[in-house]
Amino acid sequence: MSHVKKKGETNTMKFDFVIVGGGPAGLVAASEAARHKLSVALIDERVTLGGQIYKQLGIGFSVKDDSALSAEQKRGAELIRSVENPLISKFLSTTVLSVENSTLMIVQNGSSARKIEFKRLLIAPGAYDRPVVFPGWTLPGVITAGGAQTLVKTQRVSPGAQILFAGSGPLALAFPAQIKSYGANVVLALESGRGPRISDLPSLLGAIPGNIHLLKDAFNYRWGLLKMRVPMRYRRMIIRVGGVDKVEYAIHAKVDRNWKPIAGTEEKIEVDTVCIGYGFFPSTELFRLAGCSFTYNENLGGFSVDVDNWGRTSIENVFAAGDGAGVEGVYVATYRAKIAAIKVAEELGKITPSQAELLATESRNGIKAKRRFQKFLFRMYSIGEGIYDLCDAKTTICRCEGVTKEKIDQAIDTSSDVSVVKALTRAGMGLCQGRNCQRQISALISKRHDMKISDVPMSTPRFPVKPVSLGSIADETVREEKYFIDG
């Protein structure tokens, strides 16, 4: 029998500032808000704080020697300690199902849904690995950089015996170098963008102020790959993976500036693991459900939330920060989160407008410096449209529902509406709710109907944002009864 609320019992909690996301942005925002004496709720669906980049060791692991931790793990641990404050209530293993009228609905550890009321809300949900659809991408042995990172960094498990890394951007340097240093056998790293040129030097010099540490990291990663004898090849991209029941080989090819494979340049390599790292997609579900407006930028992960210079979205009292608002990296994420928390403190009367401006100055300067460096990187590593042209008719697009490109193309012939394609094919109705396939379907629609991908609307957001048991969200006044029919 379900729980029945007792008279006078409430299932709603109230806070000044509610933060969704316990990654770097959420941690910085919570710490800053508590410093200004705001009551804070920090919510994350993981069992530990830190997010993807500051992912901590899993439950059951302990650290006896702090010197064995990586710089990222140490920085993450420091940020996590910063939210050990009585003003901050932490909700881990907690899923946010909806946001509406200054209220969130949450489910913690599979229990019954509860409500949290807020005066201000910061959504900082982070991002997830960009899915890349090509023949063989559903074979066991194809893994994203985030998934492989979890295995290697937090569980000390190698994803395979012979690993091919294929990706682009800073991740294509950092990731193979990192997992190789842990002992994983990376045999080849592919970068879809072009390599550095002498002609890039003037732009690089302009990007150096405030970013010398990033250049140092890039040099160390590249030197690490050379020292560990991991070949890195530019302007090449994964185009197909093959094998019987698992990855046995991969085909890669040279690509043009738009990442279109060049015929006749294909090469085959025998591997048992293909690790994909072509950047990230922002987790936009809550923003969409809240009704926030968006702008499309492929290099920031696609649809990015529109915000002002304080991080306020188009919806009153809702702020955005972190890669979930547009993928710009951990430094910009934390700067934007701190600025948002400062503005919340001002709006709730804890500091004056002039104090807020002064406190935000350092973070604003930091954002400017990092964006100068991003502009330099985009010259070499802008996402090419060819990333959406790798699949063939028999390639599974929606892996949850097993829908092929051939079936999706038939639906697209009749409509340019993602929701119509979803209804006709079931693509996007599975467990991931379109996170893995919707952008690929949008790209197919844009090509077939001669549209910009940014003009293809996203599917309609629905409650609940994440899968949840019906028992968790059922009306608590409903009782379970047994009925018997006499024969």
Give an account of the 3D structure.
The chain is of the alpha/beta class. It folds into 3 domains: 12-128 and 281-351, FAD/NAD(P)-binding domain (3-Layer(bba) Sandwich), CATH 3.50.50.60; 131-278, FAD/NAD(P)-binding domain; 391-455, Arc Repressor Mutant, subunit A (Orthogonal Bundle), CATH 1.10.10. It has helices at 24-35, 71-81, 145-155, 170-181, 201-207, 212-227, 285-290, 330-347, 353-381, 405-412, 418-425, 438-448, 470-473; strands at 12-20, 40-43, 88-91, 94-100, 103-108, 114-123, 127-129, 142-144, 163-167, 186-191, 232-234, 236-242, 249-254, 267-270, 273-277, 280-282, 294-297, 302-305, 318-320, 396-398, 403-404. The radius of gyration is 24 Å and the shape is globular.
Task: Name the features.
single chain, 487 residues, alpha/beta, FAD/NAD(P)-binding domain, Arc Repressor Mutant, subunit A, 3 domains, 7-stranded mixed beta sheet, 5-stranded parallel beta sheet, 13 helices, 21 strands, 21% strand, disordered N terminus
List the helices and strands and how they pair.
Elements: E1 12-20, H1 24-35, E2 40-43, H2 71-81, E3 88-91, E4 94-100, E5 103-108, E6 114-123, E7 127-129, E8 142-144, H3 145-155, E9 163-167, H4 170-181, E10 186-191, H5 201-207, H6 212-227, E11 232-234, E12 236-242, E13 249-254, E14 267-270, E15 273-277, E16 280-282, H7 285-290, E17 294-297, E18 302-305, E19 318-320, H8 330-347, H9 353-381, E20 396-398, E21 403-404, H10 405-412, H11 418-425, H12 438-448, H13 470-473
Parallel strand pairs: 1-2, 1-6, 2-3, 6-19, 8-15, 9-10, 9-15, 10-11
Antiparallel strand pairs: 4-5, 5-6, 7-16, 12-13, 13-14, 17-18, 20-21
